[in-house]
Amino acid sequence: xxxxxxxxxxxxxxxxxxxxxxxxxxxxxxxxxxxxxxxxxxxxxxxxxxxxxxxxxxxxxxxxxxxxxxxxxxxxxxxxxxxxxxxxxxxxxxxxxxxxxxxxxxxxxxxx
Length: 112
Hints:
The protein is mainly α and 112 residues long. It has one domain (14-107). The protein contains 3 helices and no strands. Helix 1 packs antiparallel against helix 2. The chain is rod-shaped and about 75 Å long. The two termini are 31 Å apart.
């Protein structure tokens, strides 16, 4: 009876560790994508919209819409960073170790 309970708890903890590690990995990639691609492109688009407005090639509504788009992308970036921090905290809570000190082999319970 105790062995079965222990085994079930062990499986649950292993699943939680793998899940948290996967969320950390996915959110790290998403944050990197925002920082290297989405945010720079949004800033360039807004700069182009300002120049177009200044040269009277576009209207003020288009400029405002572009500004709203940039704000929306920044908000999504902040949410991705938040999700990453939550996943890191979950991983640290589950393992009791700094997530940076874990490697994939440990998470997958493989022998080093």
